[in-house]
Design a protein that fits this description.
The chain is α/β, with parallel strands linked by helices. The chain has eight helices and twelve strands.
Length: 247
């Protein structure tokens, strides 16, 4: 029987002895730990590797933990995060949670409690991900209009005005969701791939083209125009329903 993979926890803490102690307790609890002592090291690691959770000190030598999490979000790197800090001010806790932190632990702390909090955040994260069909689309998303049809994420279907219902794949749904959420702006191919497949996915432009063709054919055979979804040569695409008459 194959054992369950151990979750990888990225420990970003500049106090080396504390980081090592945390790492020992995490490994004793059946987890893996990777230590980074600088914000820049953590950002570089997450751009190249996957981790299940970020254990993030607020006060780091090169950058605050708050600023690091904001930079990760701007780079479209989403990871469950627990802040560690010696500052118990409520305003700091509120800020940490408002920018996307999942929990906030004040030093000094008990290691048993820390492990329990990590497991609780991991469980919540797994529960959220259960609804995902792609990185940016969930089956719990509400239906939305798209070029005269209605997309139903919960059923992986598109309902057309001719009363025909077409099944769609997960990636096609992710593409439609991203276009719908980014109307009127130029979308780079890389941004679209990262949004649907994930930032670490090794997806070629040719693969993306094949899914775009599927979406276009789907609407064409149901007599709906996709003139509002245009290729921007050398860059990517634009979806702009307000300019649907554009040649």
């Amino acid at each position: 029987m194959r054992s369950e993979p151990k979750p990888l926890i990225l420990v970003v803490e500049d106090e080396e002895e504390l980081a090592k102690l945390i790492s020992v307790h995490l490994e004793e609890a059946g987890m893996q730990a990777q230590i980074c002592c600088r914000a820049a090291h953590a950002e570089r690691f997450l751009k190249r590797n996957f981790a299940n959770l970020l254990l993030l000190d607020v006060n780091l030598p090169d950058q605050s933990g708050f600023a690091l999490l904001e930079e990760l979000r701007r780079a479209d790197i989403t990871i469950p995060t627990i802040f560690l800090t010696g500052n118990a001010l409520e305003t700091n806790k509120v800020r940490g949670l408002e920018i996307g932190g999942d929990d906030y632990v004040t030093k000094p702390f008990g290691y048993a409690e820390l492990v329990a909090r990590i497991r609780a955040v991991l469980r919540r994260s797994e529960s959220r991900d259960d609804q995902k069909v792609t990185k940016n689309a969930r089956v719990s998303d509400e239906p939305f209009p798209f070029c005269g049809a209605t997309v139903h994420p919960s059923r992986l279907e598109i309902h057309f005005p001719n009363e025909h219902v077409e099944k769609i794949g997960r990636k096609e749904l992710g593409i439609l969701v991203y276009l719908h959420d980014n109307e009127g702006v130029v979308i780079t191919r890389k941004a679209l791939i990262h949004s649907v497949w994930g930032i670490h996915a090794d997806v070629k432009s040719r693969s993306l083209d094949q899914y775009i063709v599927k979406v276009r054919d789907l609407f064409k055979r149901n007599d709906l125009s996709l003139d509002s979804f245009r290729t921007v040569h050398g860059v990517g695409y634009i979806f702009d329903p307000s300019e649907s008459s554009h040649p």
